[in-house]
Amino acid sequence: MPTLIKNTLLACSLAMAAATLCAAPAANAAEPKATAKAAKAKPAAKSKTRAHPKAVDVVGSEPEPDITDTTTTDFDCELGNKVTTYHNDNDDGHIALRWKKRLHRLTRVGTTTGAKRFENPTFGLVWIGIPAKGMLLDSRLNRQLANECKNAEQMKPVVEKPIAPPAATPAPGELAVPATPAVAAPAALDAPAAK
Q1: Segment 7-35 mean pLDDT
Q2: φ, ψ dihedrals at 64, nearest 5°
Q3: 0.85 cut: is pTM over it?
């Protein structure tokens, strides 16, 4: 039995060595052709390295929006990030957003939840504003850029208002309904029966 295993291992190792030797000349033969083509080609300009293969350099492809006569709102976000939005009272369908020293024009997108959603498909930016906070997303890379963004009003502590009792006086135009007095138990029922 041990000789059978030794012979099998020897046959496998010889087969692997033969396969390696057969593949090596084919790889070496293709290599000189590739280097010859590279030597004949014109030198390429310096290539820009990207953090992500989907990332596209679009700086300069879209002009920055005009922010004259706008209302500015500054947001402080997690991890020290800052976002500034610029709203024009005459144009509810667009905002300008400052992120990383660049202004972007975002267009409003309708939602069913009532959240304010603005998008810029060129840069992949999505700004979502809800009453408690705002967040900035990158739709091309599917990640958050800034979260827990709050302006000065949203940073104020929430104070619960006490619920006021209903008013006793009727509002104008309403009928006054007299209050029903509590029914007191007759004195005869409270006292023990006498014999």
Answers
A1: 58
A2: -70, 145
A3: no
